[in-house]
Amino acid sequence: MTMKRYELIIIGAGPAGLSAAIEAAAEGMQVIVFDENQRPGGQLFKQIHKFFGSKQHRARERGFKIGEDLLKQAEDYGVEVKLNATVIGLFENKTISVKIANRIEHYSAYNIIVAAGASEKMIPFPGWTLPGVIGAGAAQTMMNIEGVKPGNEVLMVGSGNVGLVVGYQLIQAGCNLKAVVDASPKIGGYGVHASKLSRTGVPFYTSHTIKMVKGDKKVEKALISEVDENWQHIAGSEKELNVDTVCLAVGLSPMAKLLEMAGCQMESSAGNLIPVCDEYGKTSVEGIYAAGDVAGIEEASAAMIEGKIAAVSILKKLCYLEQVEFETRFPAYKDSLEELRQGMFGIGEGSWDYPSQSREGYPLSKSLLKKGYLETEEIKQFPGVVKEKSAGVVPVVECTQNIPCNPCQDICPNDCIKVEGDIVTLPELDKDLNCSGCELCVSGCPGQAVFLIDPDFSSDHSAVSFPYEFSPLPELGSKGKALDRSGKIVGEAEIIRINKAKINDKTAVLTIKVKDEIVDQARFFKE
């Protein structure tokens, strides 16, 4: 049996695996990456939304563009990537067996990083095997990779960030998202993601789950029902929705079987089995590391840093890095990772039992947690809102949860928006507000939570500018309806400006003219 040997083997060519490969190969290490898919990049190429975090986390960049960049770097550094290569065995002596085409090949390495990612969870219910019941990841693949519309009338099951982000992308693809349901009494993902759906008119049903799907040869209807505190269906609470697609976003399972096979110590976390790792990603088996979702479900930004941390540890161990350089690079990566893990959704802080108030002492919106939108009066108490009427254009930052993100501060040329301290601090407006109305904050916010208000547009009309990522764009001068944060029509509106500047990266900024009395409510436009 021929055994090919490398200094570093990486299993998985997603964000964690590619980041690790680049970090190692940049120092001259011999690296090979195996991935079972037809193309590298993992989930990144499905992700057309803008990332959160700070500039060092590549905030405001879209996932697929980050993927393109990682692939280019890997190619430039000579990383060998084998695709359609399924690793079927990982052994304690740091050898692997790989199925490539119809043959089995064997490799060994001084160190192995497992960055195999995660798979979608499914939930069984009557009718769940009918065509039209799909996972959120499958829907993303259909839309963003294959260019196929998953369905026309869609129900989303699950309100975590995956469900909310994919729900928004379904609308972008031309689907009618009928509702989002979640058995939890509170929405599981970021409030800004939920708000993007709500203002288009999508209703949320918390404490609800899918009971069954009806249809002859495909999905035709979905029956949802309310659940009690014990997750049991409440009789008589059923609602029937006419849908042709049910999209499931009910969680992810780390693909950690290879690590278990290698004899790594495992532990239970959030119902999943994951490897026990130290701060470098090192498992209990010498020379075997884990990075990304296989070591615990987080965002892609965190996965990329975890890959770098594992690689830099190996570089130091094999003397590719001097101690001084390691002591510079590792703490920087560690601090960057800890930044992403802060806030009410972060590891160690986030839980289903959310706090009743933000770090700064502002009461969290119960409406946002239950219905997906902020009430008009609720938003006025937060620091991203001017409390008194002022002349000229002013930003309104409707970001009310402590999530790791600060691009609104970085992109403003006049320093109007501040995110003081760490990146989970609520944005606030500078006391010497001097907004030029450039709209960069509106297009740059990954959560689409920044708006511009011009209360002095005319004698009885105000102007509202908001982000818009749907196609086709309405035409200049189009007249229609202004929708509030819940998607309810609150008055007449006219498109008076469309900003499609290249710097906005495909996020258009629409400005509508509305009556003065609804300027604090109008947040969307419908023809």
Automatic annotation (TrEMBL):
Domain of life: Bacteria
InterPro entries, alphabetized: 4Fe4S_Fe-S-bd, 4Fe4S_Fe_S_CS, FAD/NAD-bd_sf, FAD/NAD-binding_dom, Metab_Enz_Cyan_OpOx_G3PDH
Keyword annotations of the record: Iron, Iron-sulfur, Metal-binding, Oxidoreductase
Residue intervals of the 4Fe-4S ferredoxin-type domain: 393-422, 425-455
GO terms for MF: iron-sulfur cluster binding; metal ion binding; oxidoreductase activity
SUPFAM superfamilies: 4Fe-4S ferredoxins, FAD/NAD(P)-binding domain
Gene3D superfamilies recorded: 3.30.70.20, FAD/NAD(P)-binding domain (3.50.50.60)
The protein, known as: FAD-dependent pyridine nucleotide-disulfide oxidoreductase
Species of the source: Halanaerobium hydrogeniformans
